[in-house]
Amino acid sequence: MSRFWSPFVKGLVPYVPGEQPKLDNLVKLNTNENPYGPSPKVIEAVRAQLDDSLRLYPAPNADDLKQAIADYHGVASSQVFVGNGSDEVLAHLFNGLFQHGKPVLMPDISYSFYPVYCNLYGIEARALPLDENFRIRVEDYQGENGGIIFPNPNAPTGILLPLDGIEQILKANPDSVVVVDEAYVDFGGESAIALVDSYPNLLVTQTLSKSRSLAGLRVGFAVGHADLIEGLERIKNSFNSYPLDRLAIAGAVAAFEDQAWFEKCCNAVIDSREQLSAALAERGFEVLPSAANFVLARHPERDAGELAASLRERRVIVRHFRQPRIEQHLRITVGTPQQNQALLDALDALLQG
Ligand code: PMP
Question: Considering the entire predicted model, what is its pTM?
Answer without folding.
Answer: 0.98
